[in-house]
Amino acid sequence: MLCRLWAGFVAAVLCAVAAASETYNDPDTGLVFSSEFKLYKADGRGITYRVAIPDDAQAYSSFDAVVQFVVPNDVGWAGLAWGGSMPQNPLLVAWRDDSNRPILSSRWATGHVAPQPYNGAQYTLFQTGTKSNSTHWQFTALCQGCSSWTLNSGVTRYVMPRGGIRMAFAYSPNRPSPPSSPTSTLTIHEVFGYIDQDLGKGLNANFQSIVERLSMS
Ligand code: HEM
Ligand SMILES: *[C@@H]1O[C@H](CO)[C@@H](O)[C@H](O)[C@H]1NC(C)=O
Fold this sequence. Notes:
Helix content is about 10%, strand content about 45%. The chain is built from 2 helices and 15 strands.
């Protein structure tokens, strides 16, 4: 919490070490999220990354998740790596098109090279929880296929539904071109970092019914 008030390089370093996710009760969707704010500029600008999951999600299984980003308007693209590093895990990259609509792009990187479109994860944008104003925009989306994935070696990896896990994020000031296409080429990030996400802080007893309601609207 304090990290939001601090500014400057030293604070950025301290926050990167000390911050852990907190619970966020979202008034728009009714979901409880595990939420973490990550600085991408030393002046205090940052992106908030939130994840909500079902409270009956089991370790070493696949489950749906809802993801929400809150993004300052100067961001070109913002990325989330579900597996905590860039290579070989589901990447979500988000930006806006010229009509202010969020574009959600599912990607996979074979290494530290430009990530390509990835069909193993699907994102469904919800209208509720997706909005913008003069300083920020945010989106809320269902992800199917983000909690498990298979490496090139054949090994399957899982997101743990309780306890601290590492996710990763990346920021670029440049929007992909053309902005209307989710498969547009990305330019490399200016900043990347890690998110200490405790999904146990984003457990929802009524996950399925809320997702059904959000899918209708
Ligand atoms: C054109 C697109 C991209 C290129 C060319 C690229 C390239 C690279 C390179 C060269 C590094 C190593 C940098 C270093 O060690 O200093 C790196 C690191 C990293 N990148 Fe990317 N990247 C791209 C997109 C992304 C996206 C979309 C994400 C996340 C959604 C991401 C997340 C990361 C992270 C977390 C690291 C730190 C090392 C790690 O944990 O793997 N990158 N990237
Ligand atoms: C602008 O929108 C963001 C994202 O929804 C929100 O977090 C922020 O509180 C809003 N700011 C104002 C002044 O309403």
